[in-house]
Write a structure and sequence with these properties.
- The protein is built from 18 helices and 19 strands.
- By secondary structure, the chain is of the alpha+beta class.
- The chain has a domain of 257 residues.
- The strands form four sheets. Strands 1-18-17-13-12-9-8 form a seven-stranded antiparallel β-sheet.
Length: 561
Amino acid sequence: MASQLKFFSRRSPVVCTHGCVASSQMLATNIGLDTLKNGGKAVDAAGAVAAALSVTEPVSSGIGGDCYCDADTKHVRGLNGSGRSPRALTVELLKEQGFDEANPLPPLHARNITVPGAAACWCDAVSLYGSKKLSIGQLLQPAIELAEQGFPVAEITAYHWKRDAHILQSLGNKHGKELLIDGQAPLHGQVFSNPFLASTFKELAGSGKKGFYEGRIAAAIVETVQRRGGVMDLEDIKSHTTDEDKPIFTNYRGVNVWETPPNGQGITALMTLNILENVDVKEMGHNTADSLHVLIEAMKLSFTDAFSFCAGPDEALVPTKELLSKTYAKERSRLINLQRASDKFSSENVLPLGTDTVSFIVVDPRGNACSFINSNYMGFGPGLVPDGCGFTLHNRGANFSLSSSHLNCLAPGKRPYHTIMPALATAADSEELLCSFGVMGGFTQPQGHAQVLLNMLVFGMNPQQALDAARFCLNYSKEEGRWHLSLEDGVSRAVAEEDLRARGHWSRWSISGHNRSLFGCGQIIAKGDWWQSWGSVSSKHLQTVLWAGSDPRGDGCAMGY
C-alpha cells in the first residue's frame, strides 16, 4: 500500500512579488491568499489557514491541539500556544496506579491529554500581530463554510485518515463517528463535511476565547477526558493562557536562525548548526556518506542535550545560553568520530516519528512573515472527540518524564517537552528576513530544519529543491540501546548500504511511497535568491521577489500573487 504513492513529477519554486502562502493543503493555501488580498497581514492569513487545515487535515491538525508561531515584523516575536497538564495530575498519583519511569502511561491514555492551546493562540496571534482590519470571526468564516459544505479529501490525507481510523472506530470512543463517513475514513476525493466543527468555530467566532475555554465546549472536553480516566477539570481549561516567548537564535555563517525556546525543541536544530560550524560540510558534498555521517552524529548529540534539559521554562531553569554557546558546540564536535557511528549519545525517550502536525508559512505584501505550526500529536492523538465538537483532543503529555529528578518531570499545570517548532532566518547584518520555514513531523522536525537549511545555505538550493532533496531520520530504541537511521529513496545505495553501515549506522533504506511521512513535510518562503551567494549573505542580496516551496511529501502547494 505504501509503495503505491509514486514520486514522478517535479516542481518549480513559486516566484511572486506581493504576498505568498505555503501549506500542506491547496484549499487552505487559497484561503490564506484570499485573506492577504482582503487586506489581512501575515498573521491574519495564518489564522485563517490554521482553521482551514483543522477542517481538511484532522488527522494532523485541529483546534483540540496546540500551536506555536514565529512572526517577523522587523523584529522576531513568538507565541507559545502549548497547553498545560491538569493541576490534579501528579507523578505520585500515577505511581499509586502503577505507572512510573519504567512503566509509563500508554501514549494514548486520557491522562496524557493537556489543555488544548490552539484556539487561544489563534485569537491572541491575530489580536497581537494582525491587521486589526479582520475579526477572528471573519478569519474563521472560510473554514466554517468548508466544514458545512464539505470538501474533497486529498490523497495523502486520505491515506493517513484510513491508517488511524481504528482509533475513532473503537467501542469506547462515543463520538469518533463525527470524523468518519458511515463509520469509515473518507476516501481520496470523497466529500467530507463536519457540521460539528463548524459549530465549534462559530462559538469561537462569536465569543472569542471564552467560546472555547468556557461553556459548552469546555464542558464537553472535561466530560470526555474524565470519562476515560483523566483528571482535567473546567478550571484547568478556563485558566489557560498563551505566552509571548522571546525566540532564541544562533548565527550560522552570517545567518541568524530563529526558533521558539524551550519547552519547544527548536534548540535542538540550533545546537546542531553550532556543532556543524566546526566541520566543512560543503567540501564533503551533498548527501554523501561523509556529510550525512557528521550531520547524523551532530543530531545525536543535540537530541541527547535536548532530552536532558528541554522543559517548561516556568517550572524549570533551562540552561539555554550555555547550550547555545559556540564554545560548548566546539567541545561537543570533538566527540564525533568521523569514521564511526556512536550509540553513546543516547536519549531517555524514544523518538516518535511521523506527519501528525501541519506547518504553514505566510509572507504578506508589507514584508511581514509568519511561520505557524498546529498539531494534534500522534495522528488523531488519543482519538477522543468531545460530544458535538467535531475535533479530537491531543496527547502532548506523553512527552513528560516520570523521573522526579528530570527537568521535564510531570507536574501540575506544567507544559511538557514539545516537538513543534516554527522558524525564521534573518540576515545577521541587517536583520532583514531571509526566509520563514518549518518542517513538521514529531521529532523529525529539528532533523528536517537542519537538512533543509543546509541544502540552501551550504549547497545553494532554492526553497523547492531544498524540500525535494532526500532526507534521513533518526530514532533511538531504548530496548536495543542504539540509534536507528532511516534513509529516503534518493540517497544512493552505495552511501546507505555500504558506507554508512560500514561506519556502524543501523540503517533502513530505501524508504519510499507513503512511508516518506517519516521525513516530515515542510514549507519555505524566502525573500530574494540569497542562497546563490552562500558565505556572503547580507542585505545587498535581498530583492523584492518571494521564492516559495512546498514539500512533495504532502498534499499542498505554495501560491502567490
